[in-house]
Specification:
about 750 residues, seven-stranded mixed β-barrel, binds alpha-methylisocitric acid, binds iron/sulfur cluster
């Protein structure tokens, strides 16, 4: 479990010279993000200035993290890379495949049985290739990374969009698809378009009911789900310093929900305290020697408007608790407006469940502040009106909050303590009655609230808020309850008020744990065998995708024109489908089943142009594939928002979709499409989306001249014989075009 202090010291040793050189080349004082990025160039010493939002740059990350649901595909790909060991420290975390139902003890045992094959596979691959393995029940990937591996000034990638959580400890940590992780594990450079920079200046101080979560709920409301695309969000100011490291983690975590590449904070005392409390005083000692390099230059914070591409200012003293939702994390409502907004909309007022946990909000501080509200309910004799569930972020947190009586207090209120894992956050929730699809409201401290996400019920209205607000709303049982102004009637018929939450940033008696759930890899893994049963329904070895045949794609059919929000949850749903994440053919049966068909407004019902009949998207696509007919998918804005799951790109690739043409892409998904040898295109003229008709046949006119910066023209032949030529843009550079030609990026690695 060693947190590789030698590697960290080396990063710090090399940092000053590289940053000083970068400052000279860039010619201005540097932001923190620039310092970290320039200190991690693949070429080591900076030799040129990179244009933000334009230049693709090769980086050398310090570390890779994978979670079970994405690690399967990442490691199946890595097995093709022909390496005996991973080239950089890497860990795998089992957290997504554990369903929440009865409570931790039973649920974990069930998961260990049901997903044995997958856990055994991940454990043996990890053992073989030198990867640290965190067993089921050890905790949620991002919490474990924060507790053990994250360090100020580091660069990390992870096969999960919330890898960005590690910004809470001053890292640049970025979510990627598995194929990107394979590059780094195989010892190659990792490519990223040099991000734009958004500065968020935090003044004032959080107080009363307001929590770090409210900062990001507010930022999401301002920037929307695509406002952070292609940018790093850098937080600074007095308000930043006054927040705990885990609170900073919460803010960075949900930066994924605004599409940001990542978010980060400068090194400060809160990070020192957290590192020391988690047994890493030596990281503090090493970081202190280069502290100036772990934060932006003072000129930047003095005149931020000069150095950031966009600047936002939030006064924490005036910030209100927020409740965001339903169905999208950027629909923010301050608590004082909730009564009016709930009444205006047809949202069910009664709160059925309050869930506290997920990688966003499962720290010791979160649990202790939430329990301070629960304690009041007990003391003031209030019976909670909703059910409660919690998922501690790690075994270390669970053990410590049990020792400190926090679990006991939660349980007195009838709370279900689920496994230290993702659980309901990713639809791993066997919620009683969800199949009835009744309209209802739940509140949670998670980050995402897309339709069907938590319990599979499209009519569940999920609202995202801070853990302490979840506790208050669940106790009151009302979505429009404002704990700052409203009172409750207790069991004795008295009017009572909930006082603002209190809690401890870190456990006063220190963290404690008996068995954190870690398995170190074999020193020499060459004799370790990795077994995949040929008849398995859960795992399937990969067959390489075919290379491009060098000709234009012609006579392709439109598979679906997706309307509105089309997140990775719509493209490759999680929940029950998580079990097929290691089996490409099986999971392909969920391809695009959540996307809304523009022509009939239905999900999973598209026209098969060959038969004229309507069928499920995967079935119709399999029919085209069987007949050797190519297809394309058309979509709206921010297509592929949300998860890093590359299944959303591999499934269409596997089933024979050739191109995805949309108004705009989410970053990770666009890269995933490129890596898997697909064409990801955007309308040069957004209004052309309207020209696409249900019975269209598509001909590429100039794919044979595919080149960086050169638009591609597609001819859409309509049913009545008329045609529209639509010009599309793309962002493929030279090497990415090679991935397309080779059939996938992995085919290129395997060939070398
Ligand atoms: C999520 O929050 O949607 C997930 C599940 O953690 C995903 C990864 C996955 O799909 O496995 C993510 O955010 O990248
Ligand atoms: Fe797990 Fe939810 Fe965090 Fe994704 S967002 S890593 S599913 S806890």
């Amino acid at each position: 479990m060693a947190f590789d202090i030698e590697m960290i010291k080396k990063v710090y040793e090399e940092m000053p010279a590289r940053v000083n050189k970068a400052r000279e080349i860039v010619g201005t004082p540097l932001t923190l993000s620039e310092k970290i990025l320039y200190a991690h160039l693949w070429a080591k010493q900076p030799t040129q200035k990179y244009e933000r939002g334009r230049d693709y740059v090769d980086f050398a990350p310090d570390r890779v993290a994978c979670q079970d649901a994405t690690a399967q595909m990442a490691l199946l790909q890595f097995m093709h890379a022909g390496k005996s060991q991973v080239a950089v420290p890497t860990t795998v975390h089992c957290d997504h495949l554990i369903q929440a139902k009865m409570g931790a003890e039973t649920d974990l045992a069930v998961a260990n049985k049901q997903s044995k094959e997958v856990f055994d596979f991940l454990s043996s691959v990890s053992n073989k290739y030198g990867i640290g393995f965190w067993k089921p029940g050890s905790g949620i990937i991002h919490q474990i990374i924060l507790e053990n591996y994250a360090f100020p000034g580091g660069l990390m990638i992870g096969t999960d969009s919330h890898t960005v959580n590690a910004g809470g400890l001053g890292m640049v940590a970025i979510g990627v698809g598995g194929a990107d992780a394979v590059d780094v594990m195989a010892g190659m450079a990792w490519e990223l378009k040099f991000p734009k920079l958004i500065g968020v200046k935090l003044t004032g101080k959080l107080n009363g009911w307001t929590a770090p979560k409210d900062v990001i709920l507010k930022v999401a409301d301002i920037l929307t789900v695509k406002g952070g695309t292609g940018a790093i969000v850098e937080y600074f100011g007095e308000g930043a310093k006054s927040m705990s490291a885990t609170g900073k983690g919460t803010i960075c975590n949900m930066g994924a929900e605004i599409g940001a590449t990542t978010s980060t904070f400068g090194y400060d005392d809160s990070m020192r305290r957290y590192l020391a409390a988690t047994g890493r005083q030596d990281v503090v000692d090493a970081a202190d020697k280069v502290a100036d390099y772990l934060t932006a230059d003072p000129e930047v914070y003095a005149e931020p408007e000069k150095y950031f591409d966009q600047l936002i200012e939030i006064n924490l003293s005036e910030l209100e608790p927020h409740i965001n939702g339903p169905f999208t994390p950027d629909r923010g409502t301050p608590v004082s407006k909730m009564k009016a907004v709930v009444a205006e909309n047809d949202w069910p007022i009664k709160v059925e469940w309050g869930l506290i946990g997920s990688c966003t909000n499962s720290s010791y501080e979160d649990m202790s502040r939430a329990v301070s509200i629960v304690e009041q309910a007990l003391e003031k004799n209030i019976t909670p009106k909703a059910e409660f569930g919690i998922n501690p972020g790690s075994e270390q947190i669970r053990y410590t909050i049990e020792r400190d009586g926090i679990i006991d207090t939660f349980e007195k209120l009838g709370t279900k303590v689920f496994t230290n894992a993702c659980g309901p956050c990713i639809g791993q929730w066997d919620r009683e009655g969800a199949d009835k699809e009744e309209k209802n409201t739940i509140v949670h401290s998670f980050n995402r609230n897309f339709s069907k996400r938590a319990d599979g019920n499209p009519n569940t209205h999920a609202f995202v808020t801070s853990p302490e607000m979840v506790a208050a709303l669940a106790i009151s049982g009302r979505l429009d309850f404002n704990p700052i102004t409203d009172t409750l009637i207790n069991d004795n018929g008295e009017e009572v008020r909930l006082n603002p939450p209190t809690g401890d940033e870190l456990p006063t008696k220190g963290f404690d744990v008996e068995d954190p759930g870690y398995q170190a890899p074999a020193a020499d893994g060459s004799s370790v065998e990795v077994i995949v049963d040929a008849n398995s329904q859960r795992l399937e070895l990969l067959t390489p995708f075919a290379p491009w045949d060098g000709s234009n794609i012609t006579n392709a059919k439109l598979l679906i024109k997706a309307e509105g929000k089309c997140t990775t949850d719509h493209i490759s749903m999680a929940g029950p489908w998580l079990r097929f994440r290691g089996h490409l053919d099986n999971i392909s049966n969920n391809m695009l089943i959540g996307a809304v068909n523009y022509f009939n407004k239905e999900t999973n019902l598209v026209k098969n142009q060959l038969t004229g009949e309507y069928g499920a998207v995967p079935a119709v696509q399999r029919d085209y594939k069987a007949k050797g007919i190519d297809t394309i998918v058309v979509g709206d804005h921010n297509y592929g928002e949300g998860s890093s799951r590359e299944h959303a790109a591999m499934e269409p690739r596997h089933l024979g979709v050739r191109a995805v043409l949309v108004k705009s892409f989410a970053r990770i998904h666009e890269t995933n499409l490129k890596k898997q040898g697909m064409l990801g295109l955007t309308f040069a003229n957004e209004a052309d989306y309207d020209k696409i008709q249900e019975d269209d046949t598509i001909n590429f006119l100039d794919l044979t001249d595919f080149a960086p910066g050169k638009p591609l023209s597609l001819e859409f032949v309509h049913k009545d014989g008329t045609k529209d030529v639509i010009v599309t843009n793309h962002t493929y550079n030279e090497s990415q075009i090679e991935w397309f030609k080779a059939g996938s990026a992995l085919n290129l690695i395997a060939a070398s």
